[in-house]
Design goal:
Distance between the termini of chain B: 34 Å
Order of helices and strands of chain A: EHHEHHEHHEHEHHEHEHHEH
Radius of gyration of chain A: 18 Å
Number of helices of chain A: 13
Largest interface: A-B, 59 and 58 residues
Radius of gyration of chain B: 20 Å
Oligomer: heterodimer
Strand content of chain A: 5-15%
Number of domains of chain B: 2
Distance between the termini of chain A: 29 Å
Shape of chain A: globular
CATH architecture of the largest domain in chain B: Orthogonal Bundle
Number of strands of chain B: 0
Helix content of chain B: 55-70%
């Protein structure tokens, strides 16, 4: 089957590992992800911080392109892109005048008919039903599922999972044989877009998340967002320097963990691209 | 005259926030849950509940302090405050408005220089390629922030892991992107 996909910029660059595992998983389950033709950046934090109209126009162009090419359902693996697309759909739905203005800006029709889903919803809908027969090597590890901010918030707009103690990723991980742990930092912020401009704040916030996961005896932190991954993985040296620690816990994308469980190799799911060595295989 | 009309006629920052982003600062009863849950509150000059209280006073000197604050730029839009607010006050949308207002009035806090430089470099990257060109972003940010030595070891490690493109990947319809940026520029 075919499904629309909006990879977003991170998956083409700093989150190549995530991208690789999403596509490997899709292939294993006979899913053909179709990229929205000529997609652009969603604008991320920068656009909504500096220019509201631009922050709606950029996602609106993406959604309008998806509609134009008949992609009724789009999976968005990046939680930050997912949030921007969902917020834009919501804003344009409740403010018809704003919608008209944004259509003028993008010079395209926009109806808001393409359904946007996050990576866990995609897994739930298309992977889980066939998962049991495919699991070859149960993921027999203790994990702390880290949802971050934008997979669950703003909850009134996303309308997805419990906002304070979400469960969807835990359920998926338990289905492949993992033991998901209670974890106090499930939805705390990693510092997100301050990664480069205020690395000190990112080190502080991300360190607290890692500390709690390690303290509870987790073998890995499981994520579904490239921003969370880059802050917890690529920034590990800064985090350990800031907290004077030696945290070694790996940070694994949920799609990588499922990939391993169905028999893909660590290389196929992109572990070699991580900064923190992953000894799980 | 109703209570809300009263505020719209006034020229306070609270009235502008109410008109532009439909966020009513007056609804806040200072429970402090937003500040308690805010991951960056301890780094802020005024935590979110304090910003709301200052807006409520509708005193020009307080409005000025907000627009010149470091807080509005430190806010990472994690949306925790809105999630926990018993009055459902959309603080993140309010922060977006305050940042843009601060910039249009050239009142940006000097301590937020690097944060703003990063956002500008990010948008400039999209403007020129349609997609984020991470290497270009980092180099442009370094130029703008004059922070040349930071993250020197990160680049080579990213390159060796295939996480950084040397050249940008441009979208096909760059003319379309240029028109979107032009139409939304203020």
């Amino acid at each position: 089957m075919k499904i629309g996909i909006y990879p977003g910029c991170s998956l083409e660059g700093s989150a190549r590992d995530y991208n690789q595992s999403v596509f490997a998983l899709a292939k294993a389950f006979d899913i053909e992800p179709v990229q929205i033709p000529d997609w652009n950046c969603c604008g991320a934090t920068a656009a909504h911080n500096l220019n509201k109209e631009l922050s709606l126009a950029l996602p609106a162009r993406i959604l309008a392109l998806a509609e134009k090419h008949g992609l009724d359902e789009i999976v968005v693996p990046c939680a930050a892109c997912y949030s921007r697309l969902m917020v834009t759909q919501h804003e344009l739905k409740i403010h018809p005048e704003l919608k008209n203005r944004i259509c003028e800006v993008i010079e395209m029709d926009y109806k808001g008919t393409s359904k946007v889903i996050n990576v866990i919803e995609w897994i739930d809908k298309y992977i889980i039903p066939k998962l049991e027969e495919k699991v070859k090597k149960p993921f027999n590890y203790k994990v702390a599922c880290y949802y971050g901010c934008l997979l669950v918030r703003p909850n009134k707009v996303l309308n997805y999972d419990r906002v304070e103690d979400p469960q969807t990723m835990d359920v998926v991980m338990n289905k492949i044989g993992a033991t998901s742990l209670d974890f106090a930092f499930k939805t705390e912020c990693c510092g997100a877009g301050l990664s480069i401009s205020r690395t000190d704040i990112v080190s502080k916030l991300s360190g607290k998340i890692i500390e709690d996961a390690e303290h509870r005896g987790a073998d890995a932190i499981i994520v579904a967002c490239p921003m969370c991954h880059s802050n917890l993985d690529m920034r590990r040296a800064d985090i350990n320097k800031y907290w004077k620690t030696e945290f070694k816990i790996p940070v694994i994308f949920v799609t990588q963990a499922i990939g391993l469980a169905i028999g893909l190799t660590p290389e196929e799911v992109g572990f070699k691209r991580h900064f923190v060595e992953v000894k799980i295989s | 005259m109703s209570h809300s009309d009263h505020h719209i006629e006034r020229n306070s920052l609270a009235a502008k926030v109410e008109k532009e982003v439909e966020v009513k600062a007056q609804k806040c009863y200072q429970c402090g849950k937003c500040s308690a849950g805010c991951p960056v509150a301890e780094d802020m000059d005024f935590p979110p509940s304090m910003v709301l209280r200052m807006l409520q006073t509708e005193i020009p000197a307080n409005d000025e302090k907000i627009l010149k604050s470091h807080s509005i730029w430190l806010c990472v839009t994690c949306e925790m405050c809105l999630t926990r607010c018993p009055m459902e006050i959309d603080i993140p949308s309010m922060m977006d408005y305050l940042r843009q207002k601060s910039r249009s009035e050239s009142k940006e806090n000097p301590k937020a220089k690097n944060i703003i430089a990063f956002h500008k470099s990010f948008l400039s990257s999209i403007k020129h390629t349609g997609r984020l060109y991470e290497l270009g972003l980092i180099l442009d940010y370094k130029r703008q922030s004059l922070n040349m030595t930071q993250d020197m070891s990160l680049g080579p490690k990213m390159l060796s892991r295939g996480k950084l493109h040397i050249f940008p990947e441009k979208i096909k319809d760059m003319a379309h992107m240029a028109r979107i940026f032009k139409k939304t520029s203020k």
